[in-house]
Amino acid sequence: MSNLSDDTLRRITSKIREKKILELTTQQLNAIPRDEQVKMYKGVGKAFIMQPRESISAEHTAQQKAISDDLSSLTKKAKYLEKQLNDAQGQLRDIFHNQQRAE
Protein backbone atom coordinates (compact mmCIF):
# COMPACT_ATOMS: atom_id res chain seq x y z
CA MET A 1 0.00 0.00 0.00
CA SER A 2 2.93 2.31 0.71
CA ASN A 3 4.11 2.04 -2.90
CA LEU A 4 0.70 3.09 -4.18
CA SER A 5 0.67 6.04 -1.81
CA ASP A 6 4.24 7.02 -2.80
CA ASP A 7 3.25 6.83 -6.46
CA THR A 8 0.24 9.05 -5.79
CA LEU A 9 2.40 11.59 -3.96
CA ARG A 10 4.92 11.61 -6.83
CA ARG A 11 2.11 12.20 -9.29
CA ILE A 12 0.74 15.06 -7.16
CA THR A 13 4.20 16.66 -7.04
CA SER A 14 4.53 16.26 -10.80
CA LYS A 15 1.13 17.86 -11.44
CA ILE A 16 1.97 20.78 -9.14
CA ARG A 17 5.20 21.31 -11.09
CA GLU A 18 3.29 21.18 -14.40
CA LYS A 19 0.76 23.68 -13.05
CA LYS A 20 3.50 26.13 -12.01
CA ILE A 21 5.22 25.87 -15.40
CA LEU A 22 1.91 26.46 -17.18
CA GLU A 23 1.13 29.47 -14.96
CA LEU A 24 4.56 31.00 -15.65
CA THR A 25 4.13 30.42 -19.39
CA THR A 26 0.70 32.06 -19.29
CA GLN A 27 2.13 35.06 -17.43
CA GLN A 28 4.87 35.43 -20.04
CA LEU A 29 2.35 35.20 -22.89
CA ASN A 30 0.10 37.78 -21.24
CA ALA A 31 3.07 40.15 -20.94
CA ILE A 32 3.42 40.18 -24.74
CA PRO A 33 1.45 43.04 -26.33
CA ARG A 34 -1.79 42.00 -28.00
CA ASP A 35 -0.69 43.27 -31.37
CA GLU A 36 -1.56 41.61 -34.66
CA GLN A 37 2.11 41.84 -35.69
CA VAL A 38 3.25 39.44 -32.94
CA LYS A 39 3.61 35.91 -34.23
CA MET A 40 3.29 33.00 -31.81
CA TYR A 41 4.61 29.51 -32.29
CA LYS A 42 3.86 26.25 -30.59
CA GLY A 43 6.55 23.62 -30.15
CA VAL A 44 5.72 20.29 -31.77
CA GLY A 45 8.50 17.78 -31.30
CA LYS A 46 11.57 19.37 -32.86
CA ALA A 47 9.55 21.83 -34.95
CA PHE A 48 7.46 24.92 -34.33
CA ILE A 49 4.07 25.74 -35.80
CA MET A 50 2.70 29.26 -36.00
CA GLN A 51 -0.67 29.51 -34.25
CA PRO A 52 -2.99 32.37 -33.35
CA ARG A 53 -2.77 33.72 -29.82
CA GLU A 54 -6.39 32.68 -29.08
CA SER A 55 -5.60 29.07 -29.95
CA ILE A 56 -2.59 29.00 -27.64
CA SER A 57 -4.54 30.70 -24.83
CA ALA A 58 -7.43 28.26 -25.21
CA GLU A 59 -5.03 25.32 -25.09
CA HIS A 60 -3.37 26.65 -21.92
CA THR A 61 -6.78 27.17 -20.30
CA ALA A 62 -7.77 23.58 -21.15
CA GLN A 63 -4.47 22.27 -19.79
CA GLN A 64 -4.90 24.25 -16.56
CA LYS A 65 -8.39 22.81 -16.07
CA ALA A 66 -7.16 19.27 -16.74
CA ILE A 67 -4.26 19.67 -14.30
CA SER A 68 -6.57 21.11 -11.62
CA ASP A 69 -8.99 18.19 -12.08
CA ASP A 70 -6.11 15.70 -11.90
CA LEU A 71 -4.75 17.36 -8.74
CA SER A 72 -8.18 17.24 -7.14
CA SER A 73 -8.66 13.54 -7.88
CA LEU A 74 -5.10 12.66 -6.83
CA THR A 75 -5.52 14.55 -3.56
CA LYS A 76 -8.76 12.69 -2.85
CA LYS A 77 -7.04 9.40 -3.67
CA ALA A 78 -4.13 10.22 -1.36
CA LYS A 79 -6.52 11.07 1.49
CA TYR A 80 -8.45 7.84 0.90
CA LEU A 81 -5.24 5.78 0.91
CA GLU A 82 -4.05 7.52 4.06
CA LYS A 83 -7.36 6.73 5.76
CA GLN A 84 -7.16 3.10 4.63
CA LEU A 85 -3.61 2.82 5.96
CA ASN A 86 -4.60 4.31 9.33
CA ASP A 87 -7.61 1.98 9.57
CA ALA A 88 -5.49 -1.07 8.73
CA GLN A 89 -2.87 -0.08 11.30
CA GLY A 90 -5.58 0.42 13.92
CA GLN A 91 -7.06 -3.00 13.18
CA LEU A 92 -3.63 -4.63 13.46
CA ARG A 93 -3.04 -2.92 16.81
CA ASP A 94 -6.41 -4.17 18.05
CA ILE A 95 -5.59 -7.72 16.92
CA PHE A 96 -2.22 -7.67 18.70
CA HIS A 97 -3.68 -6.17 21.88
CA ASN A 98 -6.48 -8.75 21.93
CA GLN A 99 -3.92 -11.52 21.34
CA GLN A 100 -1.77 -10.28 24.22
CA ARG A 101 -4.79 -10.15 26.55
CA ALA A 102 -5.77 -13.70 25.61
CA GLU A 103 -2.35 -15.00 26.60
Topology:
Blueprint: H1 2-31, E1 40-44, E2 47-51, H2 53-102
Antiparallel strand pairs: 1-2
Helix pairs in contact: 1-2
Note down, in words, how this protein is organized.
The structure is a single chain. The chain is built from two helices and two strands. Strands 1-2 form a two-stranded antiparallel sheet. It has one domain (2-102): Helix Hairpins, CATH 1.10.287. The radius of gyration is 23 Å and the shape is rod-shaped. The protein has helices spanning 2-31, 53-102, and strands at residues 40-44, 47-51. It is mainly alpha-helical and 103 residues long.
Short description:
This protein is mainly α. Helix content is 78%, strand content 10%. The protein has helices at residues 2-31, 53-102; strands at 40-44, 47-51.
The overall pLDDT average reads: 88
Separation, N- and C-terminal Cα atoms:
31 Å
The total domain count is: 1
Percent range for β-strand residues: 5-15%
Query: What Rg do the Cα atoms give?
Result: 23 Å
Number of helices: 2
The largest β sheet comes out as: 2 strands, antiparallel
- The beta-strand count equals 2
The appropriate CATH architecture is Orthogonal Bundle
Structural class: mainly alpha
What form results from the Cα inertia axes? rod-shaped
- The amount of helix comes to over 70%
Strand order of the largest sheet: 1-2
At CATH level 3, the topology is Helix Hairpins
